[in-house]
Amino acid sequence: MCYTIICEKTKQMNTNKLDKSKYDDYEMLDEYDFSDDTRGRFYKPKKVPTSLRLDNDILIMLKKEASEKKIPYQTLINSLLREHCSTS
Question: Containing H/E element for 37?
Fold first, then answer.
């Protein structure tokens, strides 16, 4: 029984490899027009854990505001920093 399951899994893996192989030689054509597209549409910045030393009253204020908006306070801090960086 175990041998049958392994054989079935192997067949599925080989079938997937064959299906994907038809796309290996694909090349983009010159006539594609991306001029109206949005750059960075699917970009998602990588989150990096970090330590940040804040005054206690500032942290309490940020947590309170985040609670009112129903978002995590780290997300609020990130959005405030991103907004500040884009306006500078």
Answer: none
Q: Is the distance from CB of 75 to CB of 66 less than 8 angstroms?
A: yes
List pLDDT tens digits, range 58-83: 999 999 999 999 999 999 999 999 99
Q: Global pTM?
A: 0.52
Give CA–CA dist 58/34, Å, rounded: 45
Alpha helices in 1-88 (DSSP H): 2-21, 56-69, 73-87
73 with 63: CB under 8 angstroms?
A: yes
SS3 state at 49: coil
- b/e code 38-62 from CB counts within 10 Å (16+ = b): eeeeeeeeeeeeeeeeeeeeeeeeb
